[in-house]
Amino acid sequence: MQDWMVDPLAEFRAQSETEPPARHRPQLRRGLWAFALPLWLVAVGAGFFWLLRYSNTPGPMGPAPRTWPAETGLVPESDGPTLVLCLHPRCPCSVASLRELQRLDADTGGRLRGVALLYVPPGEDLAWGETELMELLQGLPGLQPIPDPEGRMAARFGAHTSGAVVLYSEEGRLQFQGGVTAARAHEGDNLGRESLLSLYGGSGQVVAHTPVFGCPLQGGSCECCREWEASP
Amino acid sequence: MLQGMGGLAVNSPENRAKVAERTEALLARHRRAIHVHTDKLFIKLMITQWVAGILCAVFISPRTWEGASSGAHPHLWVALFLGGLITVIPVVIAVQQPGTALSRHSIALGQAFTSALLIHLSGGRIETHFHIFGSMAFLAFYRDWKVLVTASVVTAVDHFLRSLYWPESVFGVLLTSPWRWVEHAAWLLFENFFLVIACIRGQEELRSIAKHRAEVETTADKVANEVLLRTAELRASNASLKSEVEERMRAQEERDQLGAQLLSAQKLEAVGQLAAGIAHEINTPTQYVGDNTRFLQEAFDDLMPILRTARELCARAQDADSPCAITNALREQLEQADVDYLIDEVPHAIVQSLDGIERVTKIVRAMKEFSHPGSEDAVDVDINHALASTIAVATNEWKYVAEVETRFDGALPMVPCLPGELNQVFLNILVNAAHAIADQVADSGDLGTITVSTEQDEEHAIVRISDTGGGIPEDVQTRIFDPFFTTKEVGKGTGQGLAIARAVIVKKHGGILDFESTPGRGTEFRIRLPLRRPQAVAA
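Predict the joint structure of the above. Result:
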């Protein structure tokens, strides 16, 4: 085309050419990503593995007395099973436990009776535990909230993890000890709730011991828990 | 319309190949644009998901407790680090290599991992599975069904593994069928069935659009080339035309110069033709003025002795000498000198000579006026006087064949015109009239009549020059003003006289020159000259 010639479609051509040209991928960068992408997949897999492990790792649980521990000063229910719930008021994982118990209470027609031992740090009172968890606890009117300084009473029931549930029969015999969630902070079907429901229904075929998922109540190690958990 | 354009055969094999090639290029470009755009959307979405996850962890489970002491909840670290790991890598790839397969497949992986994490943290809430379906629909924005496969495979594998090891984390129930993951995968397949169809149709539409645009571009290219070709031809044609116009303008200038030269030559021709007659007109009075002068010389020679004798007689009469002898001598001398004859003829000779001188003077003056040098500017001219001069100059042309009658309007005002060229017109018509009459009367000795009259109307001075010649034949009346047209014999006329006359009257004076001729009876030419100075004259 001569210089003096005017291209009447210059605008049309320009419009076509304004789109960005395909960016060329450097071979080095492509090789880098070919190497990095599997690493990423492995890392993500490891992350999920860690998360699963964390979610499925139960808290410490010690053996509960086979009969009602009278030294606690607590009085068991006289007209039905007594349920002892041990809670750390600030444990977010225990929300799932409370909701499962609410379902259980509903399933049993409001038959849950007992106490809710609320961990209180030294020098604090129940006001320390005024959290969302306490609001949920109000949905379980059969459980009487009782402050448990440093979790000492809970320890007498073998409970070292928030969300631990211990059930004694009307006669004061231990019937169930464990958690009511399948994993940490996971609501849904779980063996603990199913067992309790069976017990409230009068069935004897239950799993008497389930893992508890929640925050440690007392802090520190619990040698007796390990020994008890290791026992068959 | 484009199909019908000459020379624009868009269906030729060459064009089809060009269209196909351009279609592929445009399709690749459009696909890339869509991929880049969708990458950008996912970059925003994934970052938003990540931030939302962190915020949820902060508000729902910010801390974990161990007795009275607390620390950051592991879920916060999960949101921050695992969420970040899932998000950052695809985002970085999408930023660094937007529009690439690596980018969109890593995003598909990241989005599937995000769904898995969300479902896990929600405890397998069935509502959170909608995140998968939403992600699939969003991934379909790529219009690349392979991306859906990548995300679907990851999701299906995740469901399968979880159903094996921890079904509650994905299905929300503790015990479920080992094939439930297949049901979830089937629902995913169900959604993908439609999304894949949408992707394929989207690709087909893209191809159709690209092909249409390629065809338009190809046709436009050909049109542009055709336009450029035609433009070049037009430019060449314009250059040729310009050259031709310049050539014609030069020719016109040459013609104008030749016309001016011709006018001048015509004037010289007329002067040349009139020269013999004018010479004759001047010669005749000059001849008899000379004869008379010689006669007066001889007469004076004859009178000299008489005068001397008469003087002597007067002297002797005072001395009273014999007067008779002197008287006799005087008488003899008077008789010899034929004084009576001289007394009769000398005054006549003097008058005749003066008349001759007057005629010569008149002719010379008329010649001078007729030969008025050409002027570019119009001047006020006495038309009557100009006509009289022309008639005088042309006397020898008409006087042997015709009589000239003049009926001049004495009130005719001065008329703005070019006197030299106007005199030429008058002369041409007058000479034509004389020639016409000469042809008519031949050698019969009869005289025709040339009538020259002037008059005026509101806007024009009108000059009529009529003759009693043979008139103009009807078949040539329309051609008499044509250049080089003449009915005269070779050598007697150039055929330019009336053509020049009309050009002078019409073009240079803005007037009208027409005629009325009756074959056998004569012709009358009418010249109408504007009384006010017209533009043509001013120019």
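Confidence is low (pLDDT under 50) at residues 1-8 of chain B.
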